[in-house]
Amino acid sequence: MSTAEVVRQALSELPAAQRVTVVLVDGEGYDHEAVSEILGVAPGTVASRLYRARTKLRRALWDEVR
After folding, report:
1. Contact 16, 30 (CB under 8 A)
2. For 48-66, what is each residue's pLDDT tens digit?
3. CA-CA distance, 7 to 16, in Å (whole number)?
4. Which helix (H) or strand (E) holds 34?
5. What is the pTM of this model?
6. Which residues, in sequence order, are CB contacts of 54 under 8 Å at separation 6+?
7. Is 46 in contact with 32 (CB distance < 8 Å)?
8. Are 57 and 11 spatial neighbours (Cβ–Cβ below 8 Å)?
């Protein structure tokens, strides 16, 4: 499986709220404040979703390279 496929698979396994948050911040380059406005949630919610998503992605990708 290619790296892109592994990343896509890992993203697809995230809850929708975490997935859209990580895509907007890490993929599209929006800052937390902009994502907060786009999604209609508090900036702290963006930060916590991003933290959880990145943790899950890191774990999934680490498991893949082992």
Report:
1. no
2. 999 999 999 999 888 777 7
3. 15
4. helix 32-39
5. 0.88
6. 22, 26
7. yes
8. yes
